[in-house]
Every structure is written in structure tokens, then in C-alpha cells.
Amino acid sequence: MSVTATLHDLSESDEIPPALLKRTEADLSQYLERVKPIIEAVRTDGDAALVRFARELDRVEAAEMTIRAEPEEFDAAFKSVHPDIIRAIEFAIDNIRRFHELQRPEELWLKEIRSGAFAGDRWTPIDSVACYVPRGKGSFPSVVMMTTIPAMVAGVPHPIIITPPGPDGRVDPGTLVAARLIGVEEIYKCGGAQGVAAVAFGTETVPKCLKIVGPGSPWVVAAKRLLSDVIDPGVPAGPSEVLILADETANGALAALDLLIEAEHGPDSSAFLVTNSRKVAAAALDALPGYWAEMDPMRADFSRRVLTSGHGGVVLTQDFDAAIDFVNAYAPEHLEILAAEPLAVLERIVNAGEILLGEHTPVTLANFVLGPNAVLPTGGSAKTASPLSVFDYMKRSSVGYVTRMGYDALAVQAHALATYEGFDAHARAVSSIRRRVLGN
Questions:
Q1: Is 25 among the residues known to form the active site?
Q2: Does the pTM exceed 0.90?
Q3: Helices 252-263 and 278-294: angle between axes, nearest 10 degrees
């Protein structure tokens, strides 16, 4: 008998079991303790610690390894990556850049709030950002594109990439190709907790940065948390997760196919098909073993472990309202809606990092080429956080300008409030003293 996914039958229950809402990153206690000595070693020993951890943790076997990627590594990458892949990267870059250029806010706006009183916002880029590109369970030029393109669109003066080196002490070729095509050639070979620490403190080679963005393992998430008072940790982006929300009209085999997309990232991923239809659930469960048999063995093993655990499988609910309630309680990183009227369902979704509508919009397209950013809030943080965007690479300053004609109407009200709150200097600054000082 072939193994298939776990069925979590909630069709007779009004409650969502809290265990189903938990992610693998929920309890970081074991990682927090283990990354502390790594962080301290990088803080005190700098480059020497990075080289040591590259050999101990990233299993670099090369006799020599430069921490910064050399220009010849970029040149070699373009020779080793197939032209079809380079064209796909160029296609994706174009779409992702177009989306983020449309997203970029107006540099300065001022509106007249009252006669003679103007207020608005001014947007300016962050000075430096480290873009984290993982490598442990694959190669991710897509993450290069998703993290560096909005940085370039925002006008960040100093964007860099950090990524774990391979056994040969080099950077993944696809990462190098994507970075050069985007215009970022400052890449440092340091991943995991040690990479986060390197950009938080700076080393002899790796520059200190103001912010770090990009997805990572629980080791990376733990390091970001411990160093959040040293470097802005950016969007909470941990292990991958997806919900496929399906009504009774959905194709169960298609739902199963898309359920595997994020589940194959690793055994720490989370993936659920949520449906009110026992027929759709059964069709999905029946389809999975056949898909696994045709997949790469490592990816099939990853997804099988996810979908047969408490962090994955099929959730069968009482009705479609309960299915939507589960989605909003879970607040997934990725959400696919397979329903007769996906736009009508969209109106009822309030917590999700990314919402993909209909049977022709699988997560794969959004992860690589659709345009919106695929670095998304995980671990339920989609309840308060948003996808990575141009805004994450910029900061906003409020701007105010009051004319002589507009001053009096504001001053009298501000004086009253300052007096009530007991701020004497505040009140005096908008009293008759100001008119006397100005000579009017």
C-alpha cells in the first residue's frame, strides 16, 4: 500500500486544533542557543571565523577560498550556465523590475491640509542592504532577483549579496549570472548564522549593513532575531509554506500537484490543501503517490515528509466558510485559491502573504516570473507583515510647510493642546512670543 498525505478531518469540529497552525520555526529555542557562539565568533574573529565556518558548516573542501566573489567567477558563470537559463533569468528580471517600478512611491508629495498648511511624505533609499540568498537545499537565482531588483529600483547605494559557498568554495553560477545582469557584483561567501552576523557587525572583508532581507533556515531566522538590535532583520521569511484553498468545483489532482510546490523545499516546510469537499480531498490524496513516484527522489522525500506530518496534508472542513476561517487563522506565506469564483473568495481573505487566483496561477509562476515579490512573511506573520517590496528598501520622512497666512489657525489649537498636556515650551513656541521674536 502506497503512502499518501495525512488527512486532518475537521468536518465534525467547530475548532481548529492549535497544532495545525504551528510552523517548524515556531520554537527557535534550540537554534537560539546554538547560534550564539557562532555570532560571537564572527564578532570577535571576523574573516577568520567566516573561513572556519565555511569549512565546518558549509563543507568547503577547496584549499583556498576568497570571501568575496572574484570577477573571474562571474565570467566563468556565464560560460557554465546554459543560454536557455540565462534567457529565463533575463525574462524574469524584466517582469520583476516592471512590477517594482510600478510599486515605487512618488519621491515627494505635499498636500494642502488647510489653507496655507502643507504636509506630505518624502521617500529616500536606505544606504545599505544585505540580500541573503540561501543554498542549502538548492540554487536560488530567483531569490537574487526578488531581493536585489527592488533594492536597485529603490536606489539603494550599496546593495550586497551574501550566500553560502559550495564545496568548491565558489558561488552558485546562476546566482552570479542573475546578480551581474541586475547590476550587483558585490557577493560574499557567507551563509547561515555566520553570514547574518557578518553583515550585522562587519568584518575585514564583509561590510556592515543597515538591513538584511531574504529567506533562510531556522538558523538564519534565529540569528536575525538575536541580532535585531544590531541590524534590521527585514520581512520575517523562514521555511516555505503554502495553503491550497479549494471548493467543491476544484480539480483535486491539480490541487495535489500545486501542494507539492512549496513542500519540496525541505522537511521544515508546511503545506496544506484546505477544502470542504471530501471528493476533492480524496482525489488529491489519490494523486500524490503517483506524483512522488515521478519526482526527483530527494524532492519527493522532502515533500512526503511534510505532507505526512503535522505540518502538512489535507484539511477537510465542515463547509467552505470554515475553510476560509482556517486560511485566515493560518495566515499563509503562499495561498492558491481554486474555486468557481476566486475573485469573490479573494474578498474574504484577510491574512495571506501572497494570493494567487485560479487554476492557471500556480505558485511556480509567482516564485519566478510573474513579477510580485516572492519573499513573503512566514510563520503567521502575514497577519501584520507584507511581502518584500520597494518600500522595504526605503524610509519615509514626513514633510511639513506652513505659510504665514496659514500659521494662526494652527497655532491657536496647538497652543491649547500643549497647555493641556503641560508642555510649557511647546505652548510658548506658538504664543505671542513667536510674533514678537519675528518682529510681526
A1: no
A2: yes
A3: 50
